């Protein structure tokens, strides 16, 4: 707690007066009793301000989220100080909405759980500062949460999954394969050596200027690629999946991105258009990029499954692969993983889309 207080001290805290007014805004229910312990979860690791109240049996009593996607689309990517300011502007409202939806007053909480790592330092600081003020005022226990562990364990909220199981976390900021042996017991099998798949898809979408495409103007980069790929022919471009001969379970996406950038530049010259204009072959490029990323992720995951089977690391009754993170909602990538799990007699499980992306429920 001392370390966390020092960390939070780097960031501006809400004033005690503001926190007092925030707590006074709730209507207390002296006659009401909750049978189970209640945890407030707060998530501000990147560009979503989220909060939720969950009881110890896994019931979600209330949740709220504010997405910054629209703002970051206009700036061409996440700018940390902008994300920090938006978190500051919204965190009190979001926590209030989650508590109000759950019909729980702050005094009835058993603990407050907050993401402390990994993520954008400026964004994390907002959630941490707010939480520590709340903890101080309410005299409640504080539970520091590792963002990736929360993603990995979310599936146990919606499905009955026994330890151990394999988890693939794929998002805009992360890419890793790990064997989950317990609540805080993870064996890392592979990770991205450079950028995350979601980050790569966003960068390709930006390079293709898909925000100017009439069908994609309100979509994130990854969603725009997936949408446009349905209209394209992936066979018109031949991108080779990275690390085909690497005898491990690691990933790499930056080399592939550079190859795609060069090819886009070449196509712009061929079509005689300026950078920033939309290529006639944009849909074909999107389809080829998405398929190559899907193949790369599927092949590395296949290696991890074979490794776990060979070493007898899976649960005896059922081998399970859990896929979570924002990129897990891409249906083409999910289909590639289904082919792998069908071939290896594994069960593929994904949390519902709203729990794949950053949220307060997984923290609580």
Automatic annotation (TrEMBL):
GO terms for molecular function: metal ion binding; tRNA N(6)-L-threonylcarbamoyladenine synthase activity. It holds the Pfam family TsaD. The keyword Transferase applies. Binds 1 divalent metal cation per subunit. Its EC number is 2.3.1.234. SUPFAM superfamilies: Actin-like ATPase domain. This is N(6)-L-threonylcarbamoyladenine synthase. InterPro entries: ATPase_NBD, Gcp-like_dom, KAE1/TsaD, TsaD. Keywords: Acyltransferase, Metal-binding, Mitochondrion, Transferase, Transit peptide, tRNA processing. The keyword Transit peptide applies.
